[in-house]
Design brief:
This protein has nine helices and 15 strands. By secondary structure, the chain is α/β, with parallel strands linked by helices. The chain folds into two domains: about 1-85, Arc Repressor Mutant, subunit A (Orthogonal Bundle); about 90-303, D-Maltodextrin-Binding Protein, domain 2. It is rod-shaped, with a radius of gyration of 33 Å.
């Protein structure tokens, strides 16, 4: 197809220039090369396009009709190329973003609201799930994931890190007392997070400057971060939560931090996308916008 377009363009240049020699000069070619190209085009079409004289050539009836169609085709090609080039720099189209339910609702949804006000040609579809979303399998442009993904062949951009804290409601602490050392957690109802078949029943705390994994138990566990948040606020037990999730609850007194002298490990939020190459503008500006909103970011290639 490219050769055919080039032959059409050469034919139009010959007609516009009025002679083979003039067309050759305009295209930095030779009259012989232009003549061969015209002959090859006529053979492929099975029709004579021009009547040649020693100095000029005239279009045949078939050639005149072909010339008009060629000009229309070349104009359409130029317009398509210009449009594609413009769109390669303009954020527009559907942007599919996936995120865990709680952080998606609390942190990402407000960011998307502000993003959509700035980039009004971009339609954003937010998918919330407490099951880890995959950019390929779930047909997403960007998947926001907690923790460095194990996927290979994707790009992970660190957006935010936060330490985790043990929290409880004032009501729970009034009834059961507050743990003073990590070992005290064994006597408390601890609400645990579930991912697939795995129950996160070991909470990592720093005791005497060294990390210690504390085995916890309780009557409640869930795969939903939102349900876990509701339970701990309702006084159903202790929970290990990222500070970014419960900062407002701590400030309002809805939740109270426990074991503040035993800092927990940190967790990180990553934006995962398929490739850096030919990244659509809508994805590129969204990543920049989220990074700008949440703070400094680090990019890590996986696989």
């Amino acid at each position: 197809m490219t050769d055919e377009i080039n032959d059409m363009r050469a034919f139009a240049q010959m007609i516009d220039a009025g002679s083979l020699s003039a067309a050759a000069r305009a295209t930095d070619s030779s009259p012989a090369a232009m003549s061969r190209r015209l002959a090859a085009l006529e053979r492929r079409l099975g029709v004579r396009l021009v009547t040649r004289t020693s100095r000029r050539f005239e279009l045949t009836a078939e050639g005149a009709q072909f010339y008009e169609r060629v000009r229309a085709i070349l104009l359409a090609v130029e317009e398509a190329q210009a449009e594609a080039s413009a769109q390669s720099h303009m954020p527009r189209g559907l942007l599919r973003v996936g995120a865990p339910s709680e952080i998606g609702r609390k942190q990402i949804a407000p960011i998307i609201t502000a993003f959509s006000e700035r980039y009004r040609e971009v339609e954003v579809r937010l998918v919330l799930s407490d099951v880890g979303l995959d950019v390929i399998d779930d047909n997403l442009d960007v998947a926001l994931r907690i923790g460095l993904p194990a996927d290979t062949g994707v790009i992970a951009k660190r957006l935010l890190s936060s330490r985790r804290v043990v929290v409880a409601s004032p009501d729970y602490l009034a009834r059961h007392g507050a743990p003073r050392r990590p070992g005290d957690l064994a006597a408390h109802d601890c609400i645990r997070l579930v991912r697939g078949q795995r129950v996160f029943d070991r909470w990592r705390l720093l005791e005497d400057g060294r990390p210690r994994d504390v085995l916890v138990s309780g009557r409640l566990s869930t795969a939903s971060g939102e349900v876990l948040h509701d339970w701990v606020c309702d006084g159903r037990g202790l929970a290990l939560k990222a500070l970014w999730d419960i900062k407002d609850d701590l400030e309002t007194g809805k939740l109270v931090e426990c074991l503040a002298d035993y800092h927990c490990d940190e967790i990180e939020l990553y934006a995962v996308f398929a490739s850096r190459r030919h990244l659509p503008p809508r994805v590129r500006v969204f990543l920049d916008f989220v990074t700008e909103t949440l703070g400094n970011a680090t990019t890590v290639a996986l696989g």
